[in-house]
Automatic annotation (TrEMBL):
It holds the Pfam family Gly_transporter. Belongs to the UPF0126 family. Residues 7-81, 92-166 form the Glycine transporter domain. It is a multi-pass membrane protein. GO terms for cellular component: plasma membrane. The chain crosses the membrane at residues 6-24, 31-52, 64-84, 91-112, 118-138, 150-169, 175-198. Keywords: Cell membrane, Membrane, Transmembrane, Transmembrane helix. InterPro entries: Gly_transporter (IPR005115). It comes from Paracoccus yeei. It is found in: Cell membrane. This is Trimeric intracellular cation channel family protein.
């Protein structure tokens, strides 16, 4: 666990930073704008998680090299984004991968903090969802987590819950976190490729 959780944090920061830079490319920003969006997206969810758990300093202040990771991702996308025919499709798949890494990272940190299982699940959802939410709101795009029929928060919740249940049944935490990532990715990919979705609310005329 001591080695796996920081690795998951690094991976989630990198992949979410790439998605933030892709949003910057869609908005046709300059390089500084790319770096800003990459950092905002890459560290946003983990920062909120650490603040809610009372972990001070937050993870990227303890490991400032993560800001170099987000900046490197921004520069990479700045010079290569034009090579992709559909940047939005790439954004969706990178975001799904980032979600599948960030949720177990949040779960692992919360488990290490010794909080209740309910809070562990909540921290998994927060870590996975908040960075992308900030990215889309600041980038003036409809947030993925609010798109009708998308399994996004549901995927994060399902993965976090799977990890908590497996850990409660005696499964080793690293294996529980791997299962968490697989469940998140399976649900998110199923939503994008196969159209998996939850029933949505249908307005009905009021009864008289």
């Amino acid at each position: 666990m001591q080695a796996l959780v920081p690795l998951l944090d690094h991976a989630s920061v990198l992949v979410f930073a790439l998605t933030g830079a892709l949003v910057a490319s869609r908005a046709q920003l300059d390089l500084v704008g790319f770096i800003f969006f990459a950092a905002l997206t890459g560290i946003g969810g983990g920062t909120l998680r650490d603040l809610l758990l009372g972990r001070v300093p937050v993870f990227w202040i303890e490991r400032p090299g993560l800001l170099l990771v987000t900046s490197g991702a921004a520069v990479l996308v700045f010079f290569t984004a034009h090579l992709f025919e559909s940047r939005y499709r790439l954004l969706l798949w990178l975001d799904a991968l980032a979600l599948a890494v960030a949720v177990p990272a949040g779960v692992g940190v919360a488990m290490g903090a010794g909080v209740s299982p309910v809070v562990v699940v909540a921290m998994g959802v927060v870590t996975g969802s908040f960075g992308g939410l900030i990215r889309d709101v600041v980038g003036n795009e409809l947030p993925l987590i609010l798109k009708q029929g998308e399994l996004y928060v549901t995927a994060a919740f399902g993965g976090a819950l799977a990890a908590v249940v497996l850990a409660g049944l005696g499964c080793a935490r690293p294996l529980a976190l791997i299962a968490c990532a697989l469940v998140v990715l399976a649900l998110r990919a199923g939503s994008m490729v196969l159209g998996w979705r939850l029933p949505t609310y249908r307005a009905r005329p009021p009864r008289r």
